[in-house]
């Protein structure tokens, strides 16, 4: 009897619609707020990660060693020509030419005719920060220090020389002359000559940085039909 009356009284209770709607809205708002907070935290974390990656990338590129390969003439004009990647450039030095024809007697007294040879002096160098030394290696040519320091640079010339940075020389520490003896000998010989057929030289430039890193570039030096010296960085 009691259960029937209780059930009857309970079923007779009419819920407050406004209260129900407000309760639902409050639950929905709390759920949305939680989701919003989670999204904000996720976005903030993603932004922080991207920022750290970006800073790391920028820092690695800022400290990454680099150098420029340049050529110059010994005319005192101070002209520098950058030797860029994937391009061919006429250098401000190294033009080869023929002069007057002359002769000398050999051991039998026979006249041997030769030509005077002109070769515009100049050289190559590297420019960059935190470079400690540079090694130049030539296959068929020869290098010479432009500004040798007595008692310091022992091997002042040769197919391979190592230049070291000195405060006394500053940016000129790595300046070297390049001389193509084979090409000069061919042009001096009697007979016709095509400058473009003169032997080319492959030069390796190894740059040593103070942080221990090493960068290498390979340079091809050749002549065109007019005798101008052409340089091109090659990939090996």
Overview of the structural elements:
The chain is built from three helices and 14 strands. The chain has helices spanning 2-11, 17-62, 181-188, and strands at residues 68-73, 80-82, 88-90, 96-105, 111-119, 122-127, 131-138, 142-145, 157-158, 160-164, 176-179, 201-209, 214-223, 229-234. Strands 2-1-6-11-8-9 form a six-stranded antiparallel beta sheet, with no helix packed on it. A six-stranded antiparallel beta sheet has the order 3-14-13-12-7-10, with no helix packed on it.
Calculate Rg over CA atoms: 39 Å
The total of beta strands comes to: 14
Question: Unreliable runs, pLDDT <50, ≥5 residues?
Answer: 55-61
Fraction of residues in H or I helices? 25-40%
User: Helix count?
Assistant: 3
What is the strand arrangement across the widest sheet?
2-1-6-11-8-9
Q: Approximately what portion of the residues adopt beta-strand conformation?
A: 35-45%
The structural domain count equals 2
| Sheet of most strands | 6 strands, antiparallel
- The ordered H/E elements are HHEEEEEEEEEEEHEEE
Task: Report the end-to-end length measured between terminal Cα atoms.
Answer: 102 Å
Q: Which class do the helix and strand fractions yield?
A: alpha+beta
Average of per-residue pLDDT values: 81
**What overall geometry do the principal axes of the alpha carbons give?**
elongated
Structural descriptors:
236 residues; alpha+beta; 2 domains; 6-stranded antiparallel beta sheet; 27% helix
What is the structure about, briefly put?
The chain is α+β, with helices and mostly antiparallel strands. It folds into two domains: 2-62; 68-234, no CATH class. The chain has helices spanning 2-11, 17-62, 181-188, and strands at 68-73, 80-82, 88-90, 96-105, 111-119, 122-127, 131-138, 142-145, 157-158, 160-164, 176-179, 201-209, 214-223, 229-234.
């Amino acid at each position: 009897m009691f259960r029937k009356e209780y059930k009857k009284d309970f079923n007779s209770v009419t819920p407050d619609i406004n209260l129900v709607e407000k309760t639902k809205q409050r639950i929905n708002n709390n759920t949305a707020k939680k989701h919003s907070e989670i999204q904000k935290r996720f976005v903030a974390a993603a932004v922080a990660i991207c920022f750290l990656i970006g800073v790391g990338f920028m820092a690695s590129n800022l400290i990454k060693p680099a150098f420029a390969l340049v050529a110059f003439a010994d005319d005192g004009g101070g002209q520098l020509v950058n030797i860029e990647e994937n391009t061919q450039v006429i250098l401000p030095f190294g033009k080869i030419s023929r002069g007057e024809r002359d002769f000398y007697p050999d051991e039998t007294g026979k006249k041997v005719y030769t030509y005077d040879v002109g070769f515009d002096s100049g050289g190559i160098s590297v420019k960059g920060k935190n470079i400690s030394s540079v090694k130049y290696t030539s296959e068929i040519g020869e290098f010479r220090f432009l500004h040798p320091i007595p008692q310091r640079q022992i091997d002042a010339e040769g197919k391979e020389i190592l230049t070291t940075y000195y405060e006394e020389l500053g940016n000129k520490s790595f300046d070297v002359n390049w001389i193509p003896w084979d090409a000069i000998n061919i042009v001096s010989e009697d007979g016709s000559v095509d400058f473009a057929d003169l032997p080319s030289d492959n030069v390796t430039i190894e740059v040593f940085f103070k942080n221990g890193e090493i960068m290498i570039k390979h340079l091809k030096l050749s002549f065109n039909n007019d005798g101008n010296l052409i340089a091109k960085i090659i990939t090996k």
